[in-house]
Prior knowledge:
By secondary structure, this protein is α/β, with parallel strands linked by helices. It has nine helices and eight strands.
Amino acid sequence: MRRHFTFACNGDRLVATLDQGSGTTGLLLVTGGNELRAGAWAGQAQFAARVATAGYPVLRFDRRGCGDSEGVNAGFAGSADDIVAAVAKLRAECPHVTRVVAMGNCDAASALMLAGGAGCDGLILSNPWTFETQADEAPPEAVRNHYRGRLADWNAIKRLLTGQVALGPLLRSLISAAKPAPPPSSLLRTMTDGVATFAGPIRFLIAAKDRTGLAFASVWDKSDPRVRHADAATHSFVEPHAREWLVQQVCEVLKDVTLR
Length: 260
């Protein structure tokens, strides 16, 4: 069953949707950017239904100033109170839930890190956003990884040899790839500090074809066993194989938290 309701956050009314499940661990979906809680082409709504079918209740919500919710949009960096209020509402609407795992993609993952986990018992952080501004370039390592993949793609090589690739952007990318690695951004440092003492399990999910995810992976600890990579997946895991992989990863974390 799917229900819709509102809850309060600092005097504003926020709108949420709950896909019900009988499990004792619930999933909170935090939306990235200014996207609505249904997600692009209802992708998040469909994902929530899949997870709820596996037995886990799933709550989605519009943060202040977005979608159906009231208030001023403070961006992902100012959404900690919204997330905390949503966690409390999930627990209130599902009194049988004893643990909550929060999941976010892109700057929603960053928001969860900045909020120190927002009182949740586990985190699923997908393609965390680490750029200071929208105009920031991808780190050199991410650019190099991109072109390694292109060199293994015969179709890409054929387009280059037949003049179908613009040389100007290609040259700029190659120059960027040759640069030394930049120091960690202040945003990344703050995100890292935010989850440094988080006691629950964390899983980082990186889409192999996503600039944002590759940028995060290039500056994160390569030996971190919590990182998982989705081959041939783009930013929102829209490919059929990537969708299945994503559901599998999320259900693994929910099961792990349930058994703790």
